[in-house]
Design brief:
single chain, 171 residues, mainly alpha, N-utilizing Substance Protein B Homolog, Chain A, globular
Length: 171
């Protein structure tokens, strides 16, 4: 039973880190500050996951926004609620940079944040966007025994989507 509590506690801490990342990135956006500046101004030191998410979203925002714009059918970034964009940015960065976290966990956490802090339709919107984008940044693993995929692996490669990868060869 103690193992369960520890896992639930760890999950709660990660959820809290995502929520704090959302508030800090929202503050940065509304005050026209960098994510790094907002992190540095905190009285209470942010935890490692919060720092990683805020810094990563800030550092890779242009590419993340390109990915959002390319997959937002009928929407422009300018028309999206700021909270929705921020939730998407955090989740996309996490999908790219934290492959050990299951896609479903990243998407569920993002949907929860969107439902809690944004519009009535935001949960569905964020879910749809992240489901589509997760197929691009984390393509399904195809083995010879799998059925023929609906799309080629090339179509879903991170390189073709021009997005950052935590495991990309810099050279």
């Amino acid at each position: 039973m103690a193992g369960r509590r520890r896992n639930a506690s760890e999950t709660d801490r990660r959820s809290d880190s995502r929520e704090r990342s959302l508030t800090l990135l929202y503050e940065a956006e509304t005050k026209d500050l960098s994510g790094h500046d907002v992190l540095a101004a905190q009285v209470v030191e942010p935890d490692d996951l919060t720092r990683m998410l805020v810094g990563g979203v800030h550092d890779h925002r242009e590419r993340i926004d390109e990915l959002i714009a390319a997959n937002a059918r009928g929407w422009t970034l300018g028309r999206m609620p700021e909270i929705d964009k921020t939730v998407l940015r955090i989740a996309i960065f996490e999908l790219i940079s934290r492959p050990e976290v299951p896609k479903a966990v990243v998407i569920d956490e993002a949907v929860r944040l969107a439902k809690r802090f944004s519009t009535d339709d935001s949960g569905r919107f964020v879910n749809g966007m992240l489901t589509t984008i997760s197929r691009i940044v984390r393509p399904p693993v195809i083995t010879p025994t799998d059925a023929t995929p609906a799309h080629s692996a090339q179509e879903y490669s991170a390189e073709s989507a021009a997005i950052p990868s935590a495991h990309a060869d810099p050279g």
